[in-house]
Amino acid sequence: MKRHREAVKADEEVVQLLRQLAADNPAHYTSRLARSLQNLGAHLSSLHEYVEAVDAQQEALMLLRQLAAQDPVRYIHDLSVSLNKLGVDLGSLGRHKEAGQANEEGLILRQRQAAESAEPAATITLRVARDKARTKVDLLS
Fold first, then answer.
1. In angstroms, how far is CA 21 from the centroid of its own chain?
2. Which of 13, 34, 115, 121 has the greatest number of CB atoms lying within 10 Å of its CB?
3. Which CATH number, 1.25.40.10, 3.30.230.80, 3.40.50.800, 3.40.630.30, labels domain 2-140?
4. Consecutive 10-residue runs of the chain (141 residues): their mean pLDDT?
């Protein structure tokens, strides 16, 4: 538990620094800020601080939506993962409808990505099925 608290403190410092850097140079630092917010959300979630985790995940999601709008090939996977993480944290708060919506949107993005991918169809099908199964388990937890 102590290590998770230390990780949260470090994540908060990194997020604060990256917010300043992203304000000056968004093209270079926005994706790093989004990843750091995801890390912060994950560490908060591990401490069962779900309200704060959702806040961090929602901010990361907002940034990733902007990045994916500019460069979908590069950021659509990160966006779908972020939606899944948000769904898990919302589910932990008992906000199951919102959790389902976030997870469903993430699955749709993954399916779209799979349809546009050059990967073999069997690999894509297995990955989408695995993600669907995880989503169901997360929503039932």
1. 21
2. 34
3. 1.25.40.10
4. 87 96 95 96 95 97 96 91 94 95 92 73 58 55 47
